[in-house]
Amino acid sequence: MSLLIIVKEKLLSIGLRNIASCKEAYIMRKISKTIVFIFLLVQFIQADKVNAQTLVFKENFDTISAMLTRGWETINKSNPVGSGEWKQGNLNIGANAFSGSPTSYAQVDYSSTDTLGASTISDWLLSPPITVQNNDSVSFYVLSFNSANYPDRLECRMSSMGTSDSVGTNDTTVGNFSLLLRSVNPNLDTFSFPSVTVDSSAWTKYKGTVSGLSGPTSCRFAFRYYVTHAGLYGINSSTIGLDSFLIMHYPPDAGITENSLSANVRLYPNPAEDNLNIVLSKNGDYLINIYSALGEQVMTFRTESSGNINMSAFSKGLYSVQVTDRLTGNYTAKTFIKE
Asked: Mean of the pLDDT values across residues 192-203?
């Protein structure tokens, strides 16, 4: 075989390979463009679903007196009843309102009952009737002036009985408002209610979800300031603020859930011995609460990023870690075993 023939065959072989490579590259570019288009289309559809959310109700508490003419109502069932009640913010919480003018928030304090210190506060702020349905998202912002020393508690409740304002007959009953959507500091401890004396930017968002309805229903929502051993000389109760009450409706397939933070939180090792790592997929402002199997809160702290917890002082058993995003109100709970 002559050198010329060998060279021609080599060039032909290289050419065919180059042609094949060009075809493969062309096909891969077409496939890549198609994949990108499908991805962007899916993202657009998902964004459209989320944007399909609708505002059901909004209250910024700009003027309490005007609210009372629009169907809002205050009821004080404290025992005994004091001189105080839900009122316009007056900066006694040590901070400006979360949004709007400095005093555009609702405020209530220890004066809802007497000064003896063995009293129970059960002071209610009721919304006008609002038509809602299952899975509607309820959110609000709260803070306390000094729950770090005089614990406060706030409940968000719902009644599906239309215009009814029945909150029960005394300080321990709730009447038609039996559905508890969210409780802030249910155990009246000194660290679970965001407090200005600990953090000057303490306004924190809390969320709940409407459930138990057969369809669109006229409901009322209630904020209950509920504190035992309260009053001026009580061991509990200071002053709290409430702001930016919002109800949103999301389509059933919008992918908005109370557990939307779950995929962003990971615990390891599990089971754990002396140390537990909490991995957060992105930095932010998070409240971490750890509960025993009996529901007792054994630790709470705030963090902006992933971290490590020393577990050496914990008893062996099952624990739950609740992670709340203080900016969005989304939360998730994960369990681990201490060996």
From this structure: 85
